[in-house]
Amino acid sequence: MPSKLSHPLVVCLTGGGTAGHVTPHFALLPGIKARGWRVFYIGSSGIERGLVEAQGIPFTEVATGKLRRYRSWRNVVDVFKVALGCVQALMLLLKQRPNVVFSKGGFVAVPVAWAAWLLRIPVVSHESDVTPGLATRLIQPVAKRIVYTFAETGALLRGPSEQVGTPVRDDLLRGDRARGLKLCGFSEDVAVAPALPTYLVMGGSQGALKINTALLEILPSLLAHARVIHLTGAGKGLAFSHPRYRGFEFVGPELKDLFAAADFVVSRAGANSIFEILSLRKPMLLIPLEQGSRGDQAVNAAAFAKAGWALVQREGDLSAAVFGQRLQDLAEAAPAMVQKQSEYDGKGAAVKILDVLSAVATPVSPPPP
Questions:
Q1: Residue 288 domain boundaries
Q2: Count of domains forming the chain
Q3: Would 366 be classed as within a structural domain?
Q4: 134 and 259 belong to one structural domain
Q5: What is the pLDDT of residue 354?
Q6: Which pLDDT score, from 0 to 100, does residue 369 have?
Q7: Strand ordering across the sheet containing 145-148
Q8: What is the pLDDT at residue 364?
């Protein structure tokens, strides 16, 4: 859908707290560049600064808080942080005068969205999970449009909304298996044992202590017939060494090559991550986050299991013995799972989102009412 504006759009991107609220923005960048739009990012002091600046996108930080699901004096303090963030966002938006704001969620997006509403700048927010998160629910009253991934989400939203899927970065689809194996130091191992399967185990951008602990217990037996690439999370590296094991606390652009090197993936069930794995047609075992979660990952994982795209293991029941058995189950289920995954067509989400941004954008951001 062509823009109704006579000049290229200026788009404000926002979202943060975890990589899942940041990296989907990057799938939009090729289309943004092709359309000649200008883009800038408003985030928090969290993980997003490094990720965004690595993409060459101008980044500005604002204050933000977090509404906890338990009684805490920090909830009171964070109300003032959100108010400060809203004022800071107002000043930034007045200066940059974007035609539209696009949010991927996280608490930093809330003051930005409300500041945009005060300035009559349209807001489009993307919900990745089956059930709308708190940030989406707080943004919904001021959003011009909510776009979402799962078909089931539409019934849980109020106001204008549209299913668009989840945008996946094109570069993830261009990984190189040999380069990924070499990065892990597995290249010589491939020459002598090409049939060894490779497992990629990751617990999200924050890592997963329970997954790491269970994996550590089974590594000696698992490595007798497999290789393991392990994304441990920052500060959670294992004191373990073996020619067929390679741990990384965090990876950036190399992730596409590690995905290409993997035959099987063990992951949390954040929506963005699992749709990336689905797009790569990788058999996956999902272990949804439970502690400190609102349950969104469990619902996401259940939807994937129902579609035949993944096996699911409840974190509360995870032990070394259970983990080992579920990896065997995954290997056995892999052929049928890949067949089901091949029926999924996730192309076009980025274009749909850009078309929505173009359709709702305002010609000029007027002064506050």
A1: 170-342
A2: 2
A3: no
A4: no
A5: 97
A6: 47
A7: 59-61, 38-43, 10-14, 100-103, 123-127, 145-148, 161-163
A8: 59
Rounded Cα distance between 148 and 162, Å, is: 6
State the CATH number of the domain containing residue 83.
3.40.50.2000
Which secondary-structure segment (H or E) carries 155?
none
Q: Are strands 245-248 and 227-231 parallel, antiparallel or unpaired?
A: parallel
Domain shared by 102 and 177, yes or no: no
Quick one: 160 and 193 in the same domain? no
Instruction: Give the list of residues 6+ apart from residue 70 with CB closer than 8 angstroms, or none.
Output: none
How far is the CA of 287 from the CAs of 210, 305, 318, 321, 335, in angstroms?
10, 12, 9, 15, 20
Classify strands 59-61 and 245-248 as parallel, antiparallel or unpaired.
unpaired
| 174 and 163 assigned to the same domain | no
Q: Length of the chain, please?
A: 369
Average pLDDT, stretch 171-200?
82
More confident residue, 368 or 318: 318
Q: Is residue 1 situated within a structural domain?
A: no
Which residues are paired to 228 by β-bridges? 199, 245
pLDDT at 6: 54
Q: Are residues 192 and 313 in the same domain?
A: yes
d(CA 317, CA 349): 35
Tell which residue, 58, 61, 65, 57, has the closest CA to residue 47: 61
What's the pLDDT band for 8 if we cut at 50, 70, 90? confident
pTM, 2 dp:
0.86
Domain match, 177 and 68 both: no
Q: Among 39-48, 78-87, 178-187, where is mean pLDDT lowest?
A: 78-87
